[in-house]
Structure formats: C-alpha cells, structure tokens
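Researcher: We're teaching a course module on how sequence relates to structure. For the next exercise, students receive a sequence and then see the predicted structure as tokens, so they can try to spot secondary structure elements on their own. Here is the exercise chain.
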Amino acid sequence: MAPPVLRPGDVFPPRPPEADRRRGPGWPVWVAIVVVLALGGGLVGYLTTRKSTATPADQVAAVRKAYLAWWGARKQAYLQLDPLPMRSLMTPIGYESEVKTLASQQQENQPIDIEVPVHRLQIMVYRGGQYASVDDVWQSKSVSLDPNTQQPTSQPTNDFVEDSTTLKSLAGMWLVDGTGTFGASTQTVSGTAISYATIPAGQPSSDVRRELQSAFRNFEEVRDSAYKKLDPALLTEVEAQPQLGADEAKLTTQKSQGATIRYDDQDNYRIGLESSGVAWVYDTALDQSATVSQDTGKPLQPVQPRVLRLRFRFSRGANGWLVDGIGGN
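Model: And here is the predicted structure for the students to work with:
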C-alpha cells in the first residue's frame, strides 16, 4: 500500500508496532549521568560515558546541529518534491523511508512549504555514543503550494506535533536514521491522533510531573525484577488491568520456557495528561534487552540495539499511578 499523501500539518506515517514492546532497567549513577538543560524553549538530555571521547555538551550540540540541518533539507525536499537534499544527512535506511514518503507527494505533484517557527527539542545521546534521539514538539505553519505558480493554495496550519527522531553516528557524523510519532489523544491532525504532550491542557503541574516520574521509575524497577525472578505477583504493585493480565500471561510463558528477560534500555520521554486521573509517558528508548537462559545465564540470541517508541498509559487510583496499558509504533 502506498503511503498517504501528506497535507500541511500532517504527522508523518506512524511505524508498525514493534514486537516485544518492553522496557528495561536504568543503570548505576556512576555509569551514566543524565543532565537536563533549557534550550530554545525545550530540553536537552545527555549521557556521559567513560568510553566517550567527546564531551557530553559537544555530543548534544552535534546532534542538535545535525537534526536542524536535516529539517532545513527536508523543507527543500518537500518544496522541490525531490528527496536529494536530505540524502547526505541520513543513513541509507532513513533516506529510503523518506523517499517512499515523498513519492506520494510527487505523484500528486503537491509541494508543501514547511514552516516551523517553534522546535521544543529534548535531545538524548545514549550511553556508548552511537545512537541519539530527538523528541521534538514542533509547531507547523505550513501551506500547500500551486506546483506551477508556487503560490499558497491553503491557509497556514497552526498545529503542534510530537515527533521522535533517531540519529546514528557513522564515521564521526550524526545522521538521521528514522522518524516516528506518538499518537494517543482524542485530538487529531489530518485524522491522526496526536500526543497529549502537545496540548496545553495536557501539561502536568510540577507536583504531578514528579509523581509520574517517580511512578515510571518504580514501574521499571519492579517490572524488571518481576521478569528476572519470573514472579508475576510483584507486578500488582505497579500495574493495573488490562496490562497486568497481559504481563502475567507473558511471565507464565517465560517460566515454562525456563528463560528470564534481562532488561537494558535508556529513556528519552515526555509526559502528557489526558485528565486528572489519566496520564501518558511517551518514550523513545534504546533497547538492548535479552532473553536469558536460566541454566547458563547467557542470552539465547545475539543482542542487537534497537530503538522503540513506546506509550505508557497511567491511571491514578487508591494505590497511586499504575500502568494499565502499553503501546508502541
């Protein structure tokens, strides 16, 4: 099936759900330090590692520069209906995906003047320095153009969208490797649900944000322990139905196979409120988890890094914030 034609303000086509959408543990403080800085109305997060040759600030600045250069090339590509300006700024896999997306615009002969006055960036350079992600809440004031006169044929949009973009370091250069979106709200842009983190009413207070950050950390720690010990009873502390039932079933299967899951992932997330009692955590995670044999303690398959874009739904009840659903794209 051909990708849908994009209109001004459209989010780019969501990715198919990932298999085994799981999260993993954090890491000791001495291994990685997360630093968050204000930047241009957004946030920057980065990790320091003992093996890194560049300073964290240098890594973050390089990722930011590469990401915004790619956006500039993207603007040219959709204006000219030619993906070539993006080629040198992307990995082969990332570029192939953008070529397929732009092909629909080319078939319709529909150029778009992409205007983005606001980027709220949250940048994470993952441990090891090979991968990074940019969580970007950006404002679109784009317009469709007449292909002959290059004059606007529509009114500027005024939408905010949350994108998740991954970059990979190759030969000393940061290249865009893939993009995705977070959609879970009842509000839509061109028929696609958008993130609650982009909606003014979805911004939590400082107190609620701290509550959810603590709940998310606790969820990861308890869930990691449950899968390591193959003990579903632990999950009742951090999960509610229907997610609790889904994880209990998976743990039963893992136990019958004599295999535990050793989690190892790193997070770059935002929080959005659906209501006073329902919240979402939108996470771009670098996952290096493994299914491990109980007998040998070794992974059953080679561990390959992969980026997961996950949505965690939290509901607040008598026992605080519990995870009742997990999705991804």
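Model: If you want an answer key for the exercise: Residues 1-53 have pLDDT under 50 and may be disordered. The radius of gyration is 21 Å.
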